[in-house]
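Q: Two folds, back to back.
A: First:
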Amino acid sequence: MALFRKLKSNLGVEEEEEKKKKVVDEDKEEIEEDEKEAEEKETKKESKKDKKEKHLADWPQSKGQLAADIYETDDEFFVLAPVAGVSQDEIEIFVENEMLIIKSERKEPDAEKEKKYFFKECYFGPFSRQVILPEDVNSQKIKASFKKGVLLVSMPKKKIEKKKIEIEIE
């Protein structure tokens, strides 16, 4: 056997066979890499498909935020918020740590019926809004009114008295 190897190496046959083996091995590696990439792409497609098929009810519900307009006049600050689907009794308004907090929950009508949505834009569930109170709000005199589904919170400003300071002559 050693004689044949020596003979092959002298004739250059062994080098050609090794080159062919190298090419074949490289081709095998490329094919394996392509197969792995195809499998990864297929896995990604399946996971995207699974996500799309997941029903909305399976997702955890987050707490919604109440849309509001906040503005001021010369004498008061106001928070104006449309609150559809909630009665006056279901709304909580309170002041805590110099912050006005409005909380409630919209209950979904016909929640027990199974539905297949085309669009789901209406939010049902708990919602809230927190507003940091300015320093000049009189938090003891905050009032709220609820008319035709619109909540209006009025917060009177504290009357700041100007004090004249006299300069002493030394």
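A: Second:
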Amino acid sequence: MRPMPIRLPRPRVLLFDWHATLVDTMDAMYYALDDVLPRLGPLGLLNRLVPPGESKTAEDERLVQYVRQHTSLHPKIKTERRISRTDIFELLFGADEEAKQIAHREFDALYERHFGAVRVLEPDARQQLLGLRARGIKLGVLSNRARRFMAHEIYTVDATGWHDLFDVMVCGDEVPRRKPFPDLILSALQQLGEPTDAHCWYVGDSVSDIVAGATAGVTPVFYNGVGWDDAWLQKIFPNTPRHPHQPEAVIGSLADLAERVDAAGSANRTDRVPPLTA
């Protein structure tokens, strides 16, 4: 990846992705994907998969080809559980926004069968978020999933819920376009009365999160909780004309994020150092 800034602009707002950044809802997500993919044919989506030769990486092309042949995810992907449903739909349908909207609607309908259990990813996450609030930073949480699911999860997570930690929550069924479009971020900042600039950091674990943050004009921060190595980060953020968006920082934990916040200042974002690894 390209070199990253020595210091980032100090954040007034921190917006977080939900799933796989703050919490684990992988079981329900992959169960719902298991239900969605066999429905691609009846939904008219099999013939709308990304054509051969047009995927970003060889790995992406193999994923699309496997789904085309089996209408399911490869067992290795389901075992590793490292890819979000949003990124899976992006890999499968590319620029076909209508196909992705159909897939997301079907996912929401089928996710209802499975959602409920939600596990905190980091044992000290609540304390870390409270520490960020104590620094005078506004916090928000964003998710492509529907509000009826998010409301249940945010009010039940960690036994007592985390609804008190965030100043704003925006969900995928409340904006015209889900991530990787910037609509969720723009809506959150509008509700907070904050400008859309680099003093908002958006923290997420997926390529779609980084694209959303970059296109919104805020500071995108990649949460590398699963520990991707530098070679894989280079593959998913290749900095090419077709795929130019990259994170401004890579963190491995919320404690890392707090350190980056404390180190932030008014540094010129053109001053660069070698890529940061988590």
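Q: And?
A: The radius of gyration is 18 Å.
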